[in-house]
């Protein structure tokens, strides 16, 4: 028996040494390759260039923003980050040459055109890193009859070399994306949706006329997100009523009454009386803030929720999900543009810098979690908590005065940090886990408690309004968003 044990032990040691030798001594076994080889232009993945690839290309040209990423990136034959005319010419030449890249190259050279060497039609792409979608840079024949009447004035971009070039290229692609979504939606819009859209389109036009390209890009992104994901049709009335209430909170912040509060002519009770009035007219709710009870401990999402349910969703968040969401937040060009809108301290009273990036982050979390809102809220909540040591290594006073850097590339200004993002996501989550009514009630109690703790100072009053605005933005959006809205159109 002892002998057998000894033999097994020796066998194990020999196996371990053998593996170590294989792994450590032979250099190529130490290298882990995290990329795959992609055949550009092979859109149907049959390893040949044929008519079927051109059929898929035609489908792309009809609906360029709803074709999967894996196909769109292979259309970018010249790998310049744009879907441009040269890409189409190269792919068509390859098919005309019956899929023979040498013949296609000979034909192009004979005609005096540059053409990729056959080897250049293959590219390694990383498996783990986030890869942005190429921008649409083809001429757009529908521009002439678009409801976006300034679309005709945009020219297809040819490069993204300079900051200005890249901004124009993003603008061009986003404007066409909006036009495409708008065409699908406009016949079925409800009157209120049409009103909002008309106002936002008019604002976009005035930004175009003023040459405010960065603000225009963000306005277009907001319109695209609305058109692709939001509808009031078939929804309960609560979310829209909350939005009206949020707009009234902003109105109070900009009112004469608020000025009077700041100059000491009125006290906080008068302001909260105005808030009560709006709660009554917008939502039919009666709130006497002077008598409002204490909330429970409301710092963490899990305190509102059934522990087991929350734990279940937390434990299904895989490491790959975090990596995917962080990759998106660190590299997606649209998100980076949106999150780059920050203000110097205290110059964003209406929390306007914040919503669009949260909308984009939540949509990505939903994509990662296959459309499950509870899981998406959980993923986002956990991601917001991931600390970034490199930020902590910079002394506070050395950080730029306007950037909320403290955590996970989150949106907002320095005074908000990650806090407003948690508000947005947590109260959005409570709407889904419990109900919008309970979420709103908890939000009001919590912010009232903060106001009491802050001794009703001007700063505390302003944060009451700003936190409520962030809370409602999250609630409205998490309840209403439907990324698959255009799927069948
Ligand atoms: Ca093919
Ligand atoms: Ca290209
Ligand atoms: Ca607060």
Mean pLDDT: 91
Structural class: mainly alpha
Provide a count of the helices: 20
Q: Could you describe the largest sheet, including whether it forms a barrel?
A: 2 strands, antiparallel
Molecules bound to protein: calcium ion
Which regions have little confidence, pLDDT < 50, spanning 5+ residues? Answer: none
Rg, nearest Å: 27 Å
- Give the termini distance in whole angstroms: 73 Å
User: What portion of residues belong to β-strands?
Assistant: under 5%
How are the strands ordered across the major sheet? Answer: 1-3
Shape: globular
Helix content: 55-70%
The total strand number stands at 4
String of helices and strands:
HEHHEHHEEHHHHHHHHHHHHHHH
Helix and strand arrangement:
Elements: H1 2-25, E1 35-39, H2 51-62, H3 69-75, E2 82-83, H4 85-96, H5 101-110, E3 122-126, E4 135-136, H6 163-185, H7 191-210, H8 213-229, H9 238-253, H10 256-262, H11 268-283, H12 307-315, H13 319-331, H14 333-339, H15 355-368, H16 373-385, H17 389-392, H18 419-433, H19 436-453, H20 458-480
Helix pairs in contact: 2-4, 4-5, 6-8, 7-8, 9-11, 9-20, 13-15, 13-16, 14-15, 15-16, 15-20, 16-18, 18-19, 18-20, 19-20
Bound molecules: calcium ion (3 copies).
Please tell me about this protein's structure:
- This protein has 489 residues and is mostly helical.
- It is 57% helix and 3% strand.
- It is built from 20 helices and four strands.
- The chain has helices spanning 2-25, 51-62, 69-75, 85-96, 101-110, 163-185, 191-210, 213-229, 238-253, 256-262, 268-283, 307-315, 319-331, 333-339, 355-368, 373-385, 389-392, 419-433, 436-453, 458-480; strands spanning 35-39, 82-83, 122-126, 135-136.
- The strands form two sheets. A two-stranded antiparallel ribbon has the order 1-3. A two-stranded parallel ribbon has the order 2-4.
- The mean pLDDT is 91.
